[in-house]
Amino acid sequence: MTANPPDLRPDLAPRARINDAPRPGQPTIGMVSLGCPKALVDSERILTRLRAEGYAISPDYSGAEAVIVNTCGFLDSAKAESLDAIGEALKENGRVIVTGCLGAEPEYITGTHPKVLAVTGPHQYEQVLDAVHTAVPPAPDPFIDLLPASGVSLTPRHYSYLKISEGCNHKCKFCIIPDMRGRLVSRPANAVLREAERLVDAGVKELLVISQDTSAYGVDIKHANSPWQNGEARAHITDLARNLGSLGAWVRLHYVYPYPFVRDLIPLMADGLVLPYLDIPFQHAHPDTLKRMARPAAAARTLDEIVAWRDVCPDITLRSTFIVGYPGETEDEFQTLLDWLDEAQLDRVGCFQYENVEGARANDLPDHIPAEIKQDRWDRFMEKAQAISEAKLAKKVGTLQQVIVDEIDADGIATCRTKADAPEIDGNLFIDEGTDGLNPGDLVTVEVDEASEYDLWGQIRQ
After folding, report:
1. Scanning 56, 122, 408, 410, which has the fewest C-beta atoms within 10 Å of its C-beta?
2. pLDDT score, position 280
3. Which pLDDT band, with edges at 50, 70 and 90, does 6 fall under?
4. Per the annotation, where are the binding residues?
């Protein structure tokens, strides 16, 4: 059992889990999935197609006839991590196909690793399959290789990411995701809902709604209606959240920009249709910093919105990410961010130190911040965020919380999450006795009897 560390990178997906056992002679492909949950969904879609064609999937390089590395290009440090993973796959296996965000820059990859078999960009599923077919021809057995109804999942069976759109229309100066993944492309509402229904039917207890900009869902298709059940479903985040909430699973919303109509989601949370949880990337609080970032938000109005959200839904959990050390950030601007955090009292907070990313417009801004100042500001920011988290969790001691069980270790200790906790990036609730008969995915009521800076401990109550 480990407590939740304070420095988890907030752009990372949970570790991919693969449990396939190949049949004798079955062609096998390895998969290494890096980066965010959106990339993890891309990996799931690729593997689902491969499974349908008769391939077995390996969680590592051993026994694989080729390896797909799904890369991240969000930060220069993430790019370096992707290059390292490609190099390791080449060393251990030798036959490597690269896809994902970094694949949008093929020369960047082949300049370092010229022996890769192929390079494709993000969500280019057909090109990845073509590369796999060339490297390892399929050999399906129609009597054995049956595609499971829910496809291949890289997360535990009881929760799943549900991607509702691709791309982003924002032009934040520090980000190159729109250049790599393109402009907003929303899925039809009925397609999202059908996938959600299949997942719930397959035993998924929690749907984690993701996109690059969840609030903008449907804008590109003018919030079009599409047939669903006995009526129609509109491609709008409020309608989608309401319809998802009718399926009986936990629904958790990620990457929600604080547009004014987000307030329409809060009553759905107060009514229990979706979890009282909003993941909103505020990034900063000082208006001049936000202007240099080209962010679509105003910190003062955001504080008013937070107050209004809590009035409607007092139990709401607010998670956000921030950037410290952005070019031109003065000590006064940073202090404004700390003061804003004091007032906002966010429940869950992640923080990046600013990094240049090749191709980002922020690289050309003046007054870049020295590394030691960025580190000092990150330390001070996280110290304040940790103190807020510790005080908020202390108030939960003695309360009853519904939790979902994620895993049970060999000592019988159950690692769980409350409604306030997303997988991997937030805290945990641990149950260290009376866990006989519990299984991952179970929903149980727990009385909290201990709290730390990020995690809770408790006992099962009927």
Report:
1. 410
2. 92
3. very low
4. 36, 72, 101, 168, 172, 175
